[in-house]
Automatic annotation (TrEMBL):
Species for this entry: Lipingzhangella rawalii
Keyword Hydrolase (UniProt): yes
Higher taxonomy: Bacteria, Bacillati, Actinomycetota, Actinomycetes, Streptosporangiales
Keyword Cell wall biogenesis/degradation: yes
Protein name, UniProt field: Lipid II isoglutaminyl synthase (glutamine-hydrolyzing) subunit GatD
Protein role: The lipid II isoglutaminyl synthase complex catalyzes the formation of alpha-D-isoglutamine in the cell wall lipid II stem peptide. The GatD subunit catalyzes the hydrolysis of glutamine to glutamate and ammonia. The resulting ammonia molecule is channeled to the active site of MurT.
E.C. designation(s): 6.3.5.13, 3.5.1.2
Catalytic residues, chain numbering: 96 (nucleophile), 194
Pfam families (UniProt xref): GATase_3 (PF07685)
Stated family: Belongs to the CobB/CobQ family. GatD subfamily.
Gene name for this UniProt entry: gatD
Annotated catalysed reactions: L-glutamine + H2O = L-glutamate + NH4(+); beta-D-GlcNAc-(1->4)-Mur2Ac(oyl-L-Ala-gamma-D-Glu-L-Lys-D-Ala-D-Ala)-di-trans,octa-cis-undecaprenyl diphosphate + L-glutamine + ATP + H2O = beta-D-GlcNAc-(1->4)-Mur2Ac(oyl-L-Ala-D-isoglutaminyl-L-Lys-D-Ala-D-Ala)-di-trans,octa-cis-undecaprenyl diphosphate + L-glutamate + ADP + phosphate + H(+)
Length: 236
């Protein structure tokens, strides 16, 4: 990794296992929005055979199929780098399979509960039906990002414990399965939203960047804001 404290280090965790649904776009949007503000960035790809460094600023985990997800959880627990980075205050965005495995436990493809990494007080099992389609959800007011849009494709359902707050209240779609979507605690966010989530919700990208870098100047609206408005209108 570049030894420059002013460089924003974005760590893309396990692209070999958790990269099924285009979630790498989240890293590209973070880099673009940071660089538009004059911040140098580095995207570090960490495959599952590699050690997860604890020196990153923002860690991203994407979606994945059931069996790669089990392997990813096993390796992340064995390595410990992600847990230590989060304890040090790093920002984490975990999507779908990534969301489930940063929780306390999740069900494998036969619904056997397996231990997760333990960053979020959530437990995921399997629903009767696969949740597939567009999602619109009202984000927690504390985040100041308005409505979120995205696309979901998952069998899992997630129960939130008292240690986390819902990321959003679901208007369209399934999300966690109880009327909420995703959750957060401190600087760790989990969500079922692909799309990927950050290109479709640039205000949320700026929340993550703000947590990592401090106050940010606003950017002029771009295609990302237009896409956000278009998807909200289409879902309404
Ligand atoms: N395998 C998990 C599920 O079906 C996660 C799917 C995903 O990442 N899209 O719930």
């Amino acid at each position: 990794m570049t030894d420059t404290s002013s460089t924003l280090r974005i760590v893309w965790v396990y692209p070999d296992l958790l990269s099924t649904y285009g979630d790498q776009g989240n890293a590209l949007v973070l880099r673009r929005r940071a660089e538009q503000r004059g911040v140098c960035t580095e995207i570090v790809h960490v495959n599952s055979s590699d050690r997860v460094p604890r020196e990153g600023d923002i860690y991203l985990l994407g979606g994945g199929e059931d069996r790669p997800q089990v392997l990813a959880a096993h390796r992340l627990r064995a390595c410990g780098g992600l847990l230590r980075a989060a304890e040090d205050g790093a920002v984490v965005l975990a999507v779908c399979a990534g969301y489930q495995i940063v929780g306390e436990s999740f069900g494998d493809d036969e619904a056997n509960p397996l231990p997760g990494v333990g960053l979020l007080d959530i437990r995921s099992g399997r629903g009767q039906h696969r949740a597939v389609g567009e999602v619109v959800a009202d984000a927690a007011p504390a985040l100041g990002v308005g409505q979120l849009t995205g696309f979901e494709n998952h069998q899992g359902r997630t129960a939130l414990g008292p240690g986390v707050a819902p990321l959003a209240e679901t208007r369209v779609g399934v999300g966690n399965g109880d009327g909420t979507e995703g959750c957060f605690r401190g600087r760790v966010i989990g969500s079922y939203l692909h799309g990927p989530i950050l290109p479709r919700n640039p205000a949320l990208a700026d929340v993550l960047l703000g947590w990592a870098m401090g106050d940010l100047p606003p950017l002029p609206p771009s295609w990302s804001e237009r896409l956000h408005e278009e998807r909200l209108a289409a879902a309404g």
